Fold this protein.
Amino acid sequence: MYFDVFTLFPEVFPAYLETSILKRAKENDLLEVHLHDIRDWATDKHHTTDDTPYGGGGGMVMKPEPIFSAVQEILDIPPICPLVLLTPQGETFTQQKALAFSKLPRLALICGRYEGFDERIREHLVTEEISIGDYVLSGGELPALIVIEATTRLVPGALGDPDGASDDSFSSGLLEYPQYTRPPVFQGWKVPEVLQSGDHAVINRWRRNQSLLHTLQKRPDLLLKIDLTDADLKVLEQVVYESEIPGSDSIKKIIKQRKE
Ligand code: SAM
């Protein structure tokens, strides 16, 4: 997968890109990240990339000319691949979005700074807008790294274990089941016996049930978005009717609908 990143701070990327899974993905020719310093396309003596906002107000706004010129030279206009503006106003980035991105051969990201972008970049240049969550950072560099990492993990071959991402939280629409490693007893707390039984069918069912219960406790909203089997509904029903879990009313409604 090939990423183009347009940024005013290319120097913040290499340390992270040269670590762990991303480093290995690069070494295995599964990932290429090309960093483009927007300042290189500023034509004035001081390489200015920002200016004061029309209408007044505090802060500076990223000028359109250097960003349009950079994109024109690297990707052409309209761009030859999806061009994402990183902004808190965008569509929230999810595992499903990362999966969709991982199927693309090339993706370009524009990182903002200051008070954000001249609106004409949003209106006439980019193909989509992505936010990494409902909070505001000082720049789009961390969001870009987040998009690159979440996407690259899903490129076939990027994780050592080919099934590594399939059980991760959100991949199946549920949160992941609890994980344990040695020792079997730590400070008196035991690893559940079922995990040491060697019976994979039983282990898989236990994991699915635990995923359902964790999701019910921590993110009941996710259960409303996925297809649940009859066995899943039975597990949820038992818990929902026995305890007061926030959000369980909506799950009760689903269980009732499914039974009708
Ligand atoms: N004034 C802008 C607004 O309210 O929408 C926020 C500008 S922010 C201080 C500077 C830059 O950081 C943004 O242009 C964007 O590239 C990046 N950024 C900040 N928070 C982000 C988020 N939650 N998701 C994606 N990018 C973000």
